[in-house]
Amino acid sequence: QLQLVESGGGLVQPGGSLRLSCAASGSSSDYGVIGWFRQAPGKEREGLSCISSSGSTLYAASVKGRFTISRDNAKNTVYLQMDSLKPEDTAVFYCAASFRLGLHSADFYSWGQGTQVTVSS
Asked: Where are the beta strands (DSSP E) in the chain?
């Protein structure tokens, strides 16, 4: 069974950067797409970005140009580089797997436990 584990969250000042990691327990053949989502208190889960096994990517308008998704299939790890962070980026960030490129959470499975990102001065 595929398991995903997020890491890399923390406290960062506005304008700063963080790189999140999503490590998969299985091989890349167990999933086609990995997506990143976030959920702030009192808000719905928001799809941010996803990447296919071939490297195709998709970004939400809210993070396009600031966040970059990448994957290292040899390490079974997907990264989310987050730059120019804003206080409104504060949330718990999750990764999950899917077999289609998209940002609808209903299409994703094997959710990780999440990692907290706090953007504050």
From this structure: 4-7, 10-12, 18-24, 33-39, 46-52, 57-59, 67-72, 77-82, 91-98, 115-119
